[in-house]
Give the backbone structure.
Amino acid sequence: MTSPTAPRAAARTGYLRVLAVPEFRVLFLAEVLAILGQVAAQITLSLTVYSRTGSPLLAALAFAVGFLPHLLGATLLSAWSDRVPARRLMVLTQAVTALLVACMAVPGTPVPVMLLLMFATGAVAPLYQGTKAAAVADVLPPEGFALGRSLLRMAAQLAQICGFAFGGVLFAALSPALALLAGAGLLLASCLLLRLGLPARPARRPPPAAGRPGRALPPAGGASSPVAESLRGARGVLRSPRLRVLLALTWFPPVLGVSAEALAAPLADGLGGGPALVALLLSATPAGMIAGTFLAGSLLTDAQRVRAVVPLGLLTFVPLLGLGLYPGPAVLLGLLVLSGAGYGYALGVDRLLVEAVPAGERGQVMTLVTAGLMIFQGVGFALAGALAEFLSPNTVVVLAALAGIAVVLAAGRRAGRP
């Protein structure tokens, strides 16, 4: 670090240095397997429910029900992320998820029971996601945390795209029961990889005791149940001015940015396009996100990523203002790719977040962060659809972009202050 070229070299080799850490490689591969298994199970369940009932509503519910209980799991179980050793908790939650998916494969299982089982997988999902995010901070130095998180995000985007195709092929080639068992098998493989590939580490935080120093959240004030501590921790996160700013940057830009994806079908219809254009519109923003995240991680230093939070955040929304001019398909796709590239701002936010939260509370905070993102994105999809009942899809996207610009400017400037 004594050479003036060292920061540039570190930026260029950052991803390779992160992937060179054996424990992170285990987390990375386990995440890919888990997403493939979960998405395959979701698409198989949705198709199974539709084939049995003929109801589009129930088929959509089968796909969405795994996301709905994230709020329940995050608010009631988040304290376990720090009170239980990370490897043990990740293995346990993945094993439970695999078992629940396998139970869906039992022949003759009623549709309501299958939906209830998928609901249960969503309740434990935020616990796994938050523990995994905090584990990234355990195995990587602070300057590598944002890069590690960005690699996991890129892997998630690619695995989801591949998972939809994979699930469709499984459903077509196998019986629904075997397709669900294949999804459970991938989840079990993820579980075994975590168990065999990660060393045992102690819990980040012992049972709560009054007066512990160095906490970002209000002290527990004495021993209590994990549920009570989870609820208290959720309130503490929302009461912390610093964390509220970082949560605003973590949650609301993606919520407002999904408007174009939520309205892909009506946008394509307004351009005279069919399913092919819808698929392209849905793929444009994720493609931009992967490219923007990779470039931000490869070309910028850690400090530069923090300074780029506001410029890149604005890049997420400024291109969407162009929809007010009702562009043609090619220009629209270019605007969406450019908008997706702005999501590289998240690397700077991740760096600020890991600095703001003591190690003993990272699991609980990251559980709330990841669950809140899933929940609010669902709200964003629903809100965009509701507004499109009264306004044109292009107008809805422009209004969401204006709101996103306001959020980035207001929260981004406060996030950069010590």
Summary: The first helix runs from residue 6 to 19.
